[in-house]
Automatic annotation (TrEMBL):
It comes from the Bacteria. It comes from Rhodoplanes tepidamans (Rhodoplanes cryptolactis). Residues 106-291 form the PBP domain. Residues 7-54 form the Helix-turn-helix domain. This is Helix-turn-helix transcriptional regulator. Signal peptide: none annotated.
Length: 317
């Protein structure tokens, strides 16, 4: 990707799959560099690369070096290209997918990564814009992960759902938990301010489903409309004291200073492919890698992952 100047806030919002107001929020918090032309705010692609790199540095440090998030060899912007003109696109935001794409490229598969949340990932698979979706979407009615959403968001399409890992989801709170936050009910407290994930993220869905069960409305929760697109960023906001609580996974909490983790739900993180693609060379290679001892050894000593079912077929819809 060549450096370009004069990117607008709207351009950057499209690249990062966040709202335009979210970009101005990053500027206000000094989390993304920019420059001004008169009174207008502008960015370069280097600014965007630096922001994504900072957001992922802690996660990448746990495993052997991985290329930067906007390296053209691995980053795929769904708003800029059509799938057929790109390569084998794996959608999702976990470190394990970055390592998987590296293994695929070593086997000659042009693996690219699209960093969007679970809901939009499944929609993109339905629209034929990606090859592999990933999801960790909890359904309160069935107490199941992902299967109800695949059936709803990919109607009439046969899919294979394969496990990647199990992770513990819960609450990020300040070190020592000074406000004694323990459960979903605490979001209704007047003295609690949260920071939220973007619509469609698995953590956001988990929160919303539990709020629904409690009869609570998100619009009445302080900070509910304050959205960000990564676990690392919301955990960092809690660590800095900009918010009292956020929802995310345990692995990230171990990487951020001044943050404690309250475990609430063991989630299943799965990848989803169309059944008609299961026997293609790319998907076959991907499944073989997931099931290989060499790949699994990458994650055996990293906290926050339960890979006991990695590569296992959960269900065919």
């Amino acid at each position: 990707m060549s450096d370009k100047s004069a990117l607008t806030a709207e351009d950057v919002a499209t690249m990062l799959h966040v709202s335009k107001s979210g970009i101005y929020g990053l500027i206000k918090k000094n989390e993304i560099d920019h420059y001004k032309v008169g009174r207008k705010i502008r960015f370069t692609e280097a600014h965007v690369r630096d922001y994504i790199e900072r957001s992922k540095t802690a996660a990448r440090a746990a495993v052997h070096p991985i290329p930067t998030a906007l390296d053209e060899s691995r980053y795929f912007d769904l708003s800029m290209e059509r799938r057929k003109e790109a390569g084998f696109i794996i959608c999702g935001q976990d470190l394990i997918l970055d390592v998987l794409s590296n293994y695929l490229r070593m086997q000659g598969v042009m693996a690219l990564r699209a960093y969007i949340g679970s809901y939009d990932s499944l929609v993109s698979l339905y629209q034929g814009r990606i090859n592999v979706a990933t999801a960790h979407l909890w359904d309160s009615l069935t107490d199941d992960y992902n299967v109800p959403y695949v059936r709803s968001l990919l109607p009439g399409i046969r899919c294979a759902i394969v496990n990647v890992t199990y992770r513990m989801q819960g609450l990020y709170v300040a070190k020592g938990n000074p406000k004694h936050i323990e459960s979903w009910q605490d979001f209704a407290r007047d003295d609690i301010a949260m920071i939220n994930r973007e619509k469609g993220a698995g953590s956001r869905v988990l929160l919303d489903e539990n709020l629904k069960l409690l009869g609570l409305y998100g619009s009445r929760i302080k900070g509910y409309e304050n959205e960000n697109q990564s676990h690392l960023t919301v955990a960092s906001a809690v660590g800095r004291g900009d918010a009292d609580v956020a929802v995310g996974n345990e692995k990230i909490a171990r990487q951020v200073e001044n943050v404690d983790f309250i475990p609430l739900k063991k989630e299943r993180y799965d990848l989803v492919v169309k059944k008609e693609d299961v026997d293609t060379p790319e998907v076959t290679a991907m499944l073989n890698i997931l099931r290989s001892g060499k790949f699994q050894n990458e994650f055996k000593n990293i906290g926050g992952y339960d890979i006991s079912d990695i590569g296992k077929l959960i269900v065919e819809t």
